[in-house]
């Protein structure tokens, strides 16, 4: 029975230049591999060691990239190792199988959203009306499932975000502030549901997960074991749970540590005679 590893990507396994947190002397900084180019510019990185570890992980487990990114945004990423058979995009709204969205899964998700929370149009209208143009740079809708704002963090009114969270909670939605983006996501739209579906299809008897944001909490809780880095929304609020390990590493080195933990745990579950 295989092990399944469902990991968030941004600020968990891959990092923008602003999120690398290279606090060591320059001469001791890790060598980096660019894994995403957008509009002809390098955008996301991991260490070369992390790239090797991710390739090794694919030899011992079913690796499932699990992201809030849209399908188009996810497909810009060029991760090392073989192309994953499964990927979870749009916070669980799309389950990709060999790069193609599973239509039955997407239909189930959209039906659940229609039954259990306020419609996207209502939330989008509220964001357009309530967000201050002084600090909003972009309004976006992701795969017709959820909405987000791109903001100037130094100008952002943090109290407004708290008020938005209360407003959204009453309508069955969750608000998450990640870097320069404020996400409004339906509560029934979860990474955990999609991970469970992949575990069912693969027959996985061990599920592992990692993530840094509020939108990853359900994924971590659904896994047999989970890890969070020393940065991000979950770290900022000291969020934890019995099967979750809070790691001290911050920035791109946290991605390296998370991959080591995945491999160590999978190999340990496989029995003696294999070393991490």
From TrEMBL:
InterPro entries: HAD-like_sf, HAD_sf, TPP-like. This is HAD family hydrolase.
